[in-house]
Design goal:
homotetramer; about 110 residues; mainly alpha; Substrate Binding Domain Of Dnak, Chain:A, Domain 2; 4 helices; Four-helix bundle copper-binding protein (chains A, B, C, D); Csp_YhjQ (chains A, B, C, D); YHJQ-like (chains A, B, C, D)
């Protein structure tokens, strides 16, 4: 793993935190929150795991590999849920950020 | 501040984390999530602030006082919202935990 | 998994957070910090992972199993390091809390 | 507060997390950790507060103002400690990141 790969992974995790938290906040402001409940829950779980992973990576944590694996799983699950909501721009943007982050995390542990 | 007061404050913060997160999860499973959106948002904010404060207190952080003040504010606001939902047992339990935690945090900074 | 098991696991994680953070703070106050550097690093990593796992468990997170596994690993590694420091009461107490938490986390994923 | 200001503040908080955690890790690898104990402690406190503030800002949290104030305090204190270590490149870089983050946080609450 090069320094560039590490930095790329930190950056994608942090971008994903932002996209997930923005999607979370926006889902809670939708007229019909009922349809968005899985999205709300997965957004916050994914944001928390991405933020935790980014913090660990910046400390060169002993558990970087395990956290990248967990992060990739959380991002994929959140991205799959978000990508179902075709009408919602924040969900589509969130799905993109999730899939990109998952991909970079998978590269880290390859 | 005695060791007993410190421990009491840590314990109440952690109890409040549990009550808020349980309330959050339960609100998202309600039939009508729409009515609970403020509760959902404030539950998670309060849980995060309580958890962060508890971690800081266990490290005897430089910022314990400021965090206890913020924690008391977050608990009161969350408790006020939760206590509006008379029909909901998890909201009532959450409000109780929030008000107790706020009180103990206020004592810490008095 | 019963409700009692879940609560036991949350409680042990939170006890471990406290023991690790107390050990961390105490190590930094030792006369010779040099000998304690692995302990310092592993204490904080373990505390963060235990706190994160406890938060996830209280939300009935999708990733409870993965986090309990990671938490057990972090606790064992931290406990192994701490148990080397025979002279230090806080390290011995921390090692105990770590091994107990690891055991309860392993039961959760069994 | 404009969207640009919010994003600038999130970005500076996250840059400061990285600088503090890198400084923390590097201090623990120094030959003489004894001299760096305040730096180690303040680095991690500052990193945690910056990370927490950034997460809150991305959620448009109710407590953004209070957290920016706390974050500015933590950054200044950490920056002041780090800037004493003239010989250490990671401390100097950390101090710079801290002071920049403090400044942007102060602008947010002005």
């Amino acid at each position: 793993m090069t320094q560039e790969q590490l930095q790329e992974c930190i950056d994608e995790c942090l971008r994903c935190v932002q996209a997930c938290n923005y999607c979370y906040k926006s889902c809670l402001e939708e007229e019909s929150v009922d349809m968005m409940k899985d999205c709300i829950r997965l957004d916050r779980e994914c944001a928390d795991i991405c933020a935790f992973t980014a913090q660990a990576l910046t400390q060169h944590s002993t558990y970087s590999t395990e956290l990248c694996r967990l992060c990739a799983d959380a991002c994929e699950r959140c991205g799959n849920e978000c990508s179902k909501h075709h009408h919602s721009a924040h969900c589509q943007k969130c799905a993109e950020a999730c899939f990109r982050c998952a991909e970079v995390c998978r590269k880290m542990i390859a």
